[in-house]
Specification:
Elements lengths: L1 E11 L5 H19 L2 E6 L6 E10 L2 H18 L2 E10 L1
Antiparallel strand pairs: 1-3, 1-4, 2-3
Helix pairs in contact: 1-2
Amino acid sequence: MILMGIKLSILIFDSYSLKDKRSTVKSILHRTQNKHHLTTAEVDEWDMHNKAVIGLGVVGSNRQLCQKKIEAALRDIEDFYEIEIIDHEWIIA
């Protein structure tokens, strides 16, 4: 069994309030859960209006499939939203 995740630090463009940020982050989390079947959560930087830290995770039996699933979600997030991924950290167990 493979547990794999990634912690993303993102910069949200056109976010001038916590309300704007929450809207974008919730959209990212729900879209990623529904489209890519990953576990998602906002894990840090709750009080910053233009920065967020998001965790994505998956459990599977094949390391390559888990990694491909997370990478597909990253491409989707980058292409669909007005954000910049400023840092990421892979977590593998």
